[in-house]
Design brief:
This protein has 200 residues and is mainly α. It has a domain of 72 residues. The chain has 13 helices and no strands. The longest helix is centred in the first third of the chain and has 17 residues. It is elongated, with a radius of gyration of 18 Å.
């Protein structure tokens, strides 16, 4: 255990730099992701997430570790895996993401979050059409009570890749249907989207 990571006020970038200088340290942080100490566990995640953003090639050899977390019943483990795997798609030369695609997007059903769609499409544009179909069908997929709020995240995702999307008409129709959403945030996201793309 890295004792400094038990403190809430750490500089995760400093620890990430240490890993970049000595990649063998990664194993300690992977162990930390299953720690029962919430602060320690979260700090380990923050450091590894920075690595996944800036030096994903260091974590790619540990792909299966994160896939196992993706399959966990623990929502914390699952969401940590979702965020890191999304970043690792940038170096996924073995096309491992294709194998776990369905498992990964099972998380659209989660009551907790919407997966980081744009990051994946940025690195895996071949999946854009399939992902768009899932997002358009979010109302039938997401199981949480906050579906109207989740639609805001869907719109924000669409906004990031709309210009390169194949199904612009369907996306536009989805967004227009949210103008009268029960969620103020979703209404706002819909209006901003339509202004951005000249459809207000």
């Amino acid at each position: 255990m890295i004792s400094e990571l038990e403190n809430k006020d750490i500089n995760p970038n400093m620890f990430a730099k240490k890993i970049i200088e000595n990649p063998d340290l990664i194993y300690q942080y992977l162990d930390g992701l299953v720690s029962k100490n919430e602060t320690y566990r979260y700090n380990c995640f923050k450091v590894l997430y920075i690595i996944s953003e800036n030096k994903p090639d260091l974590l790619y050899p540990h792909w299966n570790f994160f896939v196992n977390h993706l399959r966990s019943d623990n929502n914390y483990h699952k969401m940590s895996a979702v965020l890191i795997i999304a970043n690792l798609t940038s170096v996924d030369t073995d096309n491992r993401f294709k194998v776990v695609f369905d498992e990964f997007f099972e998380n659209l059903k989660s009551k907790k979050t919407i997966v980081p769609i744009y990051i994946i499409i940025n690195y895996k544009p071949d999946f854009e059409g399939k992902i768009t179909d899932l997002l358009l069908n979010i109302e039938n997929i997401h199981l949480g009570k906050q579906i109207e709020l989740v639609k805001s995240a869907v719109i924000e995702s669409f906004s990031e890749f709309y210009e390169n999307a194949e199904k612009k008409d369907e996306i536009l129709r989805f967004v227009k249907n949210q103008i009268d959403s029960d969620s103020p945030k979703t209404r706002k996201s819909a209006k901003e989207f339509l202004i951005k793309y000249g459809e207000s």
